Amino acid sequence: MAKEYKAKSGKTQWMPSIEEAQEMDNQQQGFCLACGYVQDGLEPDAAKDECEDCGEHKVYGAYELITLGLVY
C-alpha cells in the first residue's frame, strides 16, 4: 500500500513500501510519485518518465526508488 507524503515543494506525493518496490523490480514496473500509479514495462533505473495515468513526469523504476530513498 502506497503512503502519502509532502514533497519539499509542498505537493502531496506517494511512495511505495520497500516490499512493493522489490515486487515491482521483479515485474519490471515503475511507480508514479504524483499519483501512485504502477506502470508496466519500465527499466529498474528509469527516472522522470511520463505517467500513463496522470501525465506527470514522476515515474521511477523500482531500483531508482530504492536508491533515492523514496520507499518506506
Order of helices and strands: EEHEEEH
Total of helices: 2
Q: What's the average pLDDT? A: 95
Poorly predicted ranges? none
Would you write up a description of this structure?
It is a single chain. By secondary structure, the protein is an alpha+beta fold. The chain has one domain. It has helices spanning 18-26, 62-67; strands at 3-6, 12-15, 29-32, 38-40, 59-61. It starts with a strand and ends in a 5-residue tail after the last helix. The model has no long low-confidence stretch (mean pLDDT 95).
Essential attributes:
5 strands; 25% strand; 72 residues; alpha+beta; three-stranded antiparallel beta sheet
Secondary structure elements and pairings:
Elements: E1 3-6, E2 12-15, H1 18-26, E3 29-32, E4 38-40, E5 59-61, H2 62-67
Antiparallel strand pairs: 1-2, 3-4, 3-5
Give a summary of the structure in a few sentences.
With 72 residues, the chain is α+β, with helices and mostly antiparallel strands. Helix content is 21%, strand content 25%.
